[in-house]
Amino acid sequence: MAAQLQKSENELADARELVLIDDPEMAAEAAREVERLEATIAELEKRLKPALLPHDPLDDRNAIIEIRAGTGGDEAALFAADLFRMYTRFIERAGWRRETISHSEGSLGGVKEAVFKVSGAGAFGAMRWRAACIVSSGFRRPRRRGASTHRQRRSPCSPKRKRST
pTM to 2 decimals? Predict the structure, then answer.
């Protein structure tokens, strides 16, 4: 792959020289060749980069995933259930095995808590970057026609608004 990348870079240098010649047909053909070679080089670099990185010995370990509904009642439990189903499908498609450690159902088909172990080649390496804390602010009925159905909630990180008098 490295030899192919070097060959493409040499061809790109030659094609860039041909773009500068006086013949418009040859320059147009060389410009198309430059575009093609740049795309090829980008793809080769993308494929070559993982091959250059060393394999992390922790990647083949098992992973333990915890999903908790948190504050938010039924809506949070429903979201946690969706997240649990999503991870279950992801694990099955990757060919890994899921072993439930703890599972607590909520109302309306939600999940209060789900803790499970993922076993398989590369499980920890793929799952380690999927940590998140997600806030779902929920929905409510509009008070008047045309009102927003999503709750307006100010983030603790956002600046305070000035009140007009």
Answer: 0.53
